[in-house]
Design goal:
The protein is of the alpha/beta class. The chain is built from ten helices and nine strands. The strands form two sheets. Strands 5-4-1-6-8-7-9 form a seven-stranded mixed sheet, sandwiched between helices. A two-stranded antiparallel ribbon has the order 2-3. The protein is globular and about 45 Å long. The termini are far apart.
């Protein structure tokens, strides 16, 4: 059976909201919530945090140690190389890319994207990429690709900007990869529960607190329902929606 490994890129030196991945909600860091939700996916075998060798990221290393999460440390700027080396170290056949700014990730979307990748014959599958045709909220981002495709991208991609953004070489450039996108019947593309700015944190904190009050896990549809029921919360980060095109 394929070894499906979720690799979560995480660092603390974000320029827009430093330390965001370890910001605390209800006594736990956002990275804990992200990993707890990822682990609910049925199609995966392992979860790896891929952080940097920068000393500023030592708290992420300690978090991984305390929580028994596999860890890889690599380049801060060559994130494509970091993914490839992490995938090799953990003998991944299929890589699921999740970023640490998506603490409300839905494991059902992870499973659906993996199944689409396996059934379609594509080399790359995603739900929010390309963003022009995505109906999913920003913050539910899942990308899936095989080790051979990752190896090719790692060996061929020379642009530092593309290497920093990992998968641009797959989908944003015309490089001949077979691509497919997970579709959704409702358009939720203008919802935002990623975390890049202080206002994003306010939204995410409210959602987690509401989910705890309800005693609920909170799949995507319920999160949408919570935001719709609280328009003042929903509107706090709406200015960061950039419309059609690459949103982040």
């Amino acid at each position: 059976m394929d070894n499906v490994v979720v690799i979560i890129q995480a660092r603390l030196s974000s320029t827009r909201l430093p330390g965001k991945v370890l910001k605390s909600v209800l006594g736990k860091p956002l990275l804990w919530y992200l990993i707890d939700r990822v682990k609910q996916a049925k199609e995966i075998k392992n979860v790896v945090i891929a952080t940097t060798t920068n000393e500023v990221d030592a708290p992420i290393v300690e978090f991984a140690r305390l929580n028994g999460i596999d860890l890889f440390r690599g380049s801060e700027t060559d994130v494509l190389g970091r993914y490839y080396e992490a995938a090799l170290q953990h003998k991944a056949d299929i890589i699921v890319r999740v970023t640490s700014d998506c603490p409300l990730i839905d494991p059902e979307i992870i499973d659906s994207t993996i199944r689409l990748y396996k059934s379609s014959g594509a080399q790359y599958a995603a739900n929010t990429v390309p963003p022009e045709t995505s109906k999913y909220p920003d913050g539910t981002d899942v990308e899936v690709f095989g080790i051979e495709a990752l190896k090719r991208a790692h060996e061929e991609c020379k642009d530092p900007f593309d290497r920093e953004h990992v998968t641009f070489y797959f989908w944003k450039r015309n490089n001949g990869f077979r691509l497919t996108q997970l579709k959704y019947d409702k358009d939720y593309s203008k919802y935002r529960f990623t975390i890049d700015y202080p206002e994003d944190f306010e939204v995410i904190k409210f959602v987690f607190e509401e989910l705890k009050r309800r005693g609920s896990f909170g799949h995507m549809e319920e999160i949408i329902e919570i935001l719709d029921a609280n328009p003042d919360i929903k509107g706090r980060n709406s200015k960061y929606y950039f419309g059609i095109g690459w949103k982040k």
